[in-house]
Amino acid sequence: MSTSNRITTTAGTPVPTNETAKTAGKRGPTLLEDYQLIEKLAHQNRERIPERVVHAKGWGAQGTFTVTHDITQYTCASLFSEVGKKTDVLSRWSTVAGESGAADAERDVRGFSLKFYTEEGNWDMVGNNTPIFFIRDGYKFPDFIRTQKRHPKTNLRSPEAMFDFWASHPESVHQVTILMSDRGLPINPMHMNGYGSHTFSMWNKKGERFWVKFHFKTQQGHKHYTNAEAETLIGKTRESYQEDLFNAIDNGHFPKWTMYIQVMPEEEAGQQSYNPFDLTKVWPHDDYPLIEVGELEMNKNPDNYFQMIENAAYSPSNVVPGIGFSPDKMLQARIFSYADAHRYRLGTHYEALPANAPKASVVKHYHKDGAMRFFTNDFDNANAYYEPNQYEAAHTGLEYPEPPLKIDGDANRYDVEDKDIDYVQPRALFELMDQAQRERMFNNYAAAMGPCSDSVKNRWYSVLEKVHPDYAQGVKAAVEALDTDVNTVPITDDTPKEV
Ligand code: NDP
Ligand code: HEM
Question: What residues does the Catalase core domain cover (predicted)?
Fold first, then answer.
């Protein structure tokens, strides 16, 4: 009998049947000795891992990045070394707040993560579909996220908490404007842009540093749902993004994005009215035009979703020579946070899982052992398990080292001095919108803010007033016109203190 197609235990021994458990007698109870029954039940109990604390619901694909324009004057990163060069990429798009079973078509910011498997290790671009963020200091991230998640008593999402937090942080109005605009609800990941959002740096072979922003513009065009369209859709399917993406790729309609960078010479930082390292600010295109770099095409559905997408571990700390960080405070917090999250969610050796293991570079490190050490890193010589050692001449160092970054100033906790700066760019965005776009945004606000208390509503109207009087007026009118018989109750048990 051929043994190649037999069901086996995890130890590889043949299983006599997968139909019936072993019992004491025809109608008797099951026997403890039915090891395979126990193994099946025990494995099932361990099939789930902790979901991501944010961005839990996601969709992903594999594909290729191709360089179309030369940017070697800005970076020595090997993936950009010549026009025509191709690099394998793993993408994952996500909503931020919803749990892993959340409906896809919900109004939320979308994550936009790309892992480039370069010859010099993995570069992770862990961005969003927005060029900015709600807050500018990582110190506030856990509090912010708490307002996006469930209330401890009701176990419901709380608009009261969201707008309470935003009203205390006027820098959030830029991102909230995008969230409430058409772009807050794309029809699927293929119809939205991606942004690195933070300022990063690049350095070239001459050791010159540049500040950069990353942009991935959809070639499919922007498409969005209204709230009403999304509600109808969610009634039919909660998995619309997964369906659209999987089917598009399966049918050979590969989605594409054009990659651009904005470049600021190192010495120009500080010459702007805004802080170029503040994540709540963009760099206006007129000042820093988009420079075309290449094309991203996602063309393969992973064979196993869990293995490639759920196990994917993206981190802004994964940079490659030629791409570096910046003084952005949020970025600094993220550089710590992600690898820590991965060790908790996936285990000590998460980097060696198929989704995360470098594909185009040789991994050679001296981390040893620990839970689930399922790979070898003896590198052909079992004696070379510490470094330096007498057996091998592996070396460290970069061919083109990162130039030093000048830093000065007193260690302290700083807030921004010019608060009015937070309203300038949201105003520019509001002024870009035509009246129909504005009306849709006002109505989206009404749906989102309807359940909030008057005190929270009024505090948010004051923020909007500083952006543009028409903005505040439009939102207020839409909220007041709303049918107030909403079935979600704001948490106003305690009288809010004066803020
Ligand atoms: P531009 O007119 O050169 O650029 C405006 C940008 O806004 C375009 O990239 C456009 O994207 C994008 N956009 C249009 N509608 C929306 C929306 N509802 N939500 C988010 N983005 C939208 O002007 P500036 O560069 O001077 O920027 C003006 C304002 O535009 C900024 O204050 C910022 O709010 C917003 N913005 C700026 C970006 C930047 O990097 N400079 C990037 C994205 C937004 P597209 O080209 O895809 O249509
Ligand atoms: C996921 C932390 C800000 C984009 C995550 C995860 C953590 C985290 C812990 C889960 C990681 C995992 O389990 O795999 C933080 C902290 C932030 C911050 C501490 C601020 C200090 C941001 C910003 C962006 C962003 C500003 C975008 C510009 C993402 C994306 C994911 C993610 C896209 C999902 C990655 C994936 O697809 O697996 N974040 N985050 N985050 N974050 Fe952040």
Answer: 8-395
Active site residues: 55, 128
pLDDT of residue 491 exceeding 60: no
**Residue pLDDT, tens place only, 125-135:** 999 999 999 99
Are the C-beta atoms of residues 377 and 368 closer than 8 Å to each other?
A: yes
ipTM: 0.98
List of residues 6+ apart from 127 with CB closer than 8 A:
111, 112, 113, 114, 194, 195, 196, 197, 214, 216
Three-class SS of residue 176? helix
Pocket test for ligand 1, best of 190, 285, 433, 444 (most atoms within 8 A of CB): 285
Last residue of a domain, one of 346, 372, 405: 346
User: Which among 52, 94, 216 is the best mutation to test ligand 2's pocket, defined by most ligand atoms within 8 Å of the CB?
Assistant: 52
- Asked, for residue 336, whether it belongs to a domain, the answer is yes
Nearest to 196 by CA among 136, 265, 111: 111
How long, in residues, is the chain? 499
| Tens digit of each residue's pLDDT (9 = 90 or more) over 433-490 | 999 999 999 999 999 999 999 999 999 999 999 999 999 999 999 999 986 655 455 5
What is the reported pLDDT for 328?
97
Residue 251: count of CB within 10 angstroms of its CB: 8
Identify the domain boundary among 296, 313, 346. 346
- The pTM of the full predicted model, rounded to 2 decimals, is 0.96
Q: Are 254 and 63 in contact (CB under 8 A)?
A: yes
- Total domains in the fold of the chain: 2
